[in-house]
User: What shape does this take?
Amino acid sequence: MTKGISFTGYDARPLNGFLMKSNHGNIANEMINIGQKEGFNIYFLERNPEDDSFEITTNKKQPPSERVGGWPQDLWGFIGKKLLTFENSSQSDAIINKFKLTDDKTQQTIRAQKNLPQYYGVMDTLLNMPHVELNGHSGYLLANPETGEVSLLPEEVVQAEYTKLSDVIKGILHNTHIEGGNYYFAKNKSGKETALVGKNELDKFSQDEIKQMLGTDNVVFIPQMDYHMDLYLRPLDNGKILLADDKLTKQMLTEGFNKIQEAALKLQVQKRPEELRKLEKPFVQTGVYTNGIDDVVKSNNFAQTEETAKVLEDAGFDVIRVPGRLYETRTSGLKNGVFLIHLFNFMNANVLPNKNGELVYITNKSNIDEEVFGITPEIEKLTGFSVQKSFVQAIKPYIKPENIYFISGDNNIMSENLKSYQGGIHCMCSEVPKD
Assistant: This one.
């Protein structure tokens, strides 16, 4: 087994910064602002349209862009001085050159065994075939390398082959890459370096292959409470791990409903009807979600908190359960038959010490307070309840409230990312280790 690689990222250890490739909704610029305050860099993968090459800029504000390709966490993983890549591309080359890395040999060997280089060779042949008009027909010229005989292939035949080949290549790439959202490196309470890996990766790799790619013999496989680990747990420091607990989310909503009800009764006694009417939507909506959460949890076929907590505790971690998510379920073709639509998710987060050595927690802002529950700042002040405030209180013993950031983007675009794409700020950033 491999030994001797020193991990420098992923749990709450010092980082050089984060690599991003999309400024969708000005989210990258929001991260730059936080980094300038707290002492980390944002590296941006920027395309040069003139020659289709890529360069990496540092703390450079970007114009808003589309979300396309906005998940660096799942495309590139910094493992010591190696790079795990979804694909060998000009983007990967730019990252390797910028940070003086090497490709992961195990990953490249697995891909060679699956004939990926040969498939790329066929793809190059298809892309370089000359397009011609011949005898009233259009198509692509193919020369036989042995006889030199040239034949004309119809466009639809070449296009069908290209589509089929693209699907094969995408499948190989997917099945030879561990996406960063499904593993963490963390030290347990005894200081033992541990790779926490989602169990679904065992569908693609043997345990030995995973250990070789991650550079450690100490791998703990975690039950999947969602399709990626970064949607339900978040390592801090000193062996502490935050873990989403749906029972605590119900408890939080129940307490919020009770606070709203108490405020309403008080306003009724005081004969303040205008303010009382403002509590109608918060009262109804928090009640609806509080009463419905048990049925939603029952429809979730992923692992539950107790199972995951036991594995983490047995591995020597201090598990801190928090009301970190609220979701709806949808049927899907995933292994568990469902996927989760997150109405809020505070587990998907970037965590690191700032320039003063204090932990910083950067997560996703949710619009559930105001848009779903109708809890405006005025209502929050009146009732003392908001979902976001409740989460801050839950992690306050470990992270100062002033060091907790909720990334929103323009027009609450981060909430839409979570609901539409099941991804948040951790997915949009790949950790760059401290030198």
Q: What stands out?
A: The first strand starts at residue 15 and ends at 20. The longest helix spans residues 246-269.
